[in-house]
Write a structure and sequence with these properties.
The complex is a heterodimer of chains A (187) and B (295).
Chain A (H helix, E strand, L loop, with lengths): L3 H9 L3 H23 L2 H17 L10 H20 L10 H4 L9 H19 L3 H12 L4 H8 L3 H22 L6
Helix pairs in contact in A: 1-2, 2-3, 2-4, 3-4, 6-9, 7-9, 8-9
Chain B lengths: L7 H6 L1 H6 L4 H13 L1 H11 L11 H9 L3 H14 L4 H13 L1 H16 L12 H9 L2 H17 L4 H18 L8 H10 L2 H78 L6 H7 L2
Helix pairs in contact in B: 3-4, 6-7, 6-8
The chains are: A mainly alpha (187), B mainly alpha (295).
Amino acid sequence: MLDLDTLLERCRRGDDLAWEALVRRYQGRVFAVAFHYLRDREEARDAAQEIFIKVYQNLHSVQQGQRFVPWLLRLARNACVDRLRRLKVRTPAVAVPVEESYDLATAEPSPEEASIAGTRRSLLYRAIARLGDNSREMILLKEIQQLKLEEIAELLALPLGTVKSRSHRARVELAEAVYELDPSYGA
Amino acid sequence: MERDAVDCRQLEDRLEALLDGALDAAERRRCDEHLAACAGCRELVAPLLAPRAAEPPPPGLLTGVMARTAAGACRQARLLACERLDGTLSTADGQLLAPHLERCGDCRAVVRALAALPADLPALAELEPPHGFADAVLAATLPLAVRLRRWWRASWPGWVRRPRFASEAAFVATLVLVLVVATPGSPLEAVPRGALELARTDPVAGVEAPVAVLEQRLGERVRAVRQQRLAPAAAAVRGWAVGAYAGAGRLVAAAEQRLGTLRDGAASLLTQAGVALQLIEPPPPDSEQTDEETP
C-alpha cells in the first residue's frame, strides 16, 4: 500500500487512481465523523460526499504526511457543523441504532468476538448519546479519532487548557454514563 | 533561665502538640502549670486528655459530612484519575486521590470504566459507509473527460457486439451527414449546391479553368524557384567572365607591346645587316648598265 505522502503527491498531479485509493482508504473514517455529528445515515452519506468533494477541490493545500488526517477531520467537522446549521437541527439525545445497520470497517472478528464487540460498541454508542454536544465532540476528536490536544485546540479555536479540561470532563462523563448503563464495564 | 508558665493563648497554640504528646518535658510542664491554675482551660482540655477510647467513627459519617460540605470531591477525584491515566498526576494529588478511591466504590467503578475506554473507543473511528459510497464520490469528483473515457471503455464492447450495430451505425452516419450538410449556417452548406452546378455544366470546361489556373501558378512557382536557385550561380559566372575578359585584354596588350619591340629589333637588325653587306661586297660592274637601261 502506498504511503500517504506518495498518495497525496500523485493525487495533486491528477492521478485518478491515487485519488480513488485515497477515498477508499479514508471513507470509513470520514463517514464515521459525519455520522457522529449528524446521527442520520442519509445525511451522513451526503455530508461525507460533500467532504470528499471539498478535499478533491483543495488537494493543493493538503498538508504533508501526518498532518493530513487532522486536516481531513477539521474539514469534515466544519462541513458537518455547517450542515447542521443549515438543517437547523441539533443531534437528538437518543441511542444510536449502530447494532442494526453498521459494522466496523476492521478485520472480521470471530462470531463470539463480534457479539462481544457489538455489545460493547452498542453500549458505548448509547453512553455517548447521553453526553452533551461539547463532551461528545471531545470524545469524538480526542478518544475516537485520536487527535492531539494541540490539534483539537487549533480545530476548535480554543485555548489548550480549555481543551484539556473539557477532554477530562468528557471522559469522566462518558465513564459515568457507561457505568450507569453497565456497572460491570471494565471489571 | 526557665521561662514563665504559658498563658491561655499560648496553651491553645500548643494544644494539638499537647494532645499528641509531642511537647518536650519543659513545655509540657509549663502547660500543666497553666492548666492547674486556669479553670477555663482545664475544662476545655480535660475531656481531650482523658484516655481516648479506640472507637472507629460511625459509618457514613464521612460520607454525610462530605455530602453536606464538599460534594465535588468525587468529581475532583475522577478528574484526577484522568490525569493519573495520562501520567500527568502530581505526587500531592496522587496522595489525595488514593485514599478517596479506597473508600469510594462508585469512583473506583468509574475509574475502571475510564481505564477501559481507551481500548474500546478507537474502534469507533471508522464506520462501514453505505454500499457504493466510494463510487459515488469518484463519480462526483473525477473530471468529465475521465468519466466519459471510463464509461466508454466499459460499454463499447457491448455496443459493438449487438446484432443491429451495423444498421444502427449506418443510420447514425447518414443522420449526421444530413445534419452537417443541410443545416443552415453550416460550413459545408454550399457543398451540395456546388456539386449540382458542377454536374449541370460541361465537366471538361469546368475542369479546364482550374487546370489553367494551376498551370499558371505552377509556372510562376517554377520561375521563382529557378530564379531563386540560379541567381547566385549566374552572378558568379558573370563575375568570372568579366574577370577573364579583363585578363585576356591585359594579355593581348602585353603581347602587342612585346611584338612591337621584336619588330623594331628585327628592322634594326635588317638595317645593320644591309650596311654590313654593302661594306663587305662591292657592287657588280653591270649594275651601272642596268641602271641605264631601266628608264
